[in-house]
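Thread title: Can someone regenerate the structure for this chain?

I was given the following input by a collaborator and told the matching structure tokens would be attached. They weren't. Posting the sequence so someone can regenerate them.
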Amino acid sequence: MSAIEIAIEVAGWAGAALILLAYFLLSIGKLGSRSLAYQAMNLGGATGFVINSWWHGAIPNAAMNVVWAGIAIYSLVRLARRPRARA
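Best answer:
Regenerated them for you:
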């Protein structure tokens, strides 16, 4: 297996781990759906899946994860634009 193939597999597995961890932390109440960490984990996970899926020719999976990443980016932009509470 070449270095690029190993990197592609690592990206896929890391993506899976990030999305599962984000969902687990959301489910047990450690993260909120509107938290920066949750959305960043979803974006990172989706990116790993897109890389891996595209490489393996799984275009429907890659397309779904492009949309998943788009949702995360949209949420991150909304989080960045929300008014901050003054201390």
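The chain has a mean pLDDT of 95.
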